[in-house]
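Task 17 of the worksheet. Students: predict the tertiary structure of the chain below and write it out as structure tokens. Keep your answer in the requested format; marks are given for formatting as well as content.
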Amino acid sequence: MSDHSWVGEFPGAVTVCDTAGRIIEMNGRAGEVFAADGGAALVGTNVLDCHPEPSRTKLAGMMAERRTNVYTVQKNGKKKLIYQAPWFRDGVYAGFVEISFEVPRDMPHFNRDK
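Model answer:
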């Protein structure tokens, strides 16, 4: 992301697609995370082709409805937070972004409402 160079070495995986689902950008960590699937060579391919069912249908629905999906997952003994959300350019829907990063198993939670 040339105009946002900080994201290149961000420790979380950042993958960005356009409104059609075509992957337009991936940072270095995303390339590493998805290395077995092609890594940085995935840029230009459709994000829906990277997901098996029923995830593909769920993601297509999220993109069509422009709704956010947030969850945690454990894989290879590591807990990750997955944040998938629409992104906008000048108020116009421009596609979807996925950010994922490792979180500690016993992550502290602070209630700032008090």
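Marker's comment: The domain at 5-102 is CATH 3.30.450.20 (Beta-Lactamase). Residues 69 and 112 are 24 Å apart (CA to CA).
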